[in-house]
Design brief:
It is a single chain. Helices cover 47% and strands 0% of the residues. The protein has 126 residues and is an all-alpha fold. The longest helix has 18 residues. It is globular. The chain starts with 16 loop residues before the first helix and ends with a helix.
Length: 126
Amino acid sequence: MNADPMINSEVNTKSSDKSLEAMRHFSEQYAKRTGTYFCTESSVTAVVIEGLAKHKDELGAPLCPCRHYEDKEAEVSAAYWNCPCVPMRERKECHCMLFLTSDNEFACERQDISLETIKEVRESMG
C-alpha cells in the first residue's frame, strides 16, 4: 500500500468521460441560454467543468467545485451551491468564473470549449 495520502485524495481523481461530456454540454448550453461567456483563459473553464464532473460522479450532483464544504452531501441536498448555484441564477454571479457577463474583464466571446481542451488541461495538471 502506498503511504502517500495524496494518491487517493480527491485532488488526483478524474471525472468519468460521461460526466465530463455532460458538464461540458451543460456549460455550453447554459452560457448560451443566459448570455454569459467563458473566461479568456480556457484552463479556468476546463478546471471548473472538470470539478463539476467529479462532483457529479462522487455526489450525484454538480456541486460548485470552487468552495470548501464541511459536508458535501448536506450541501448537495440543500441545492444552493449545485450548479447553476443560486447566486448565478438570481444575479448572474459565478464565483468560479465559469459563466461571466460580457462586461467582465475576464470574459471572452466564447460559449464553447472542446472536450479535447478540457482533457489536455486535466492531463497537464497531473
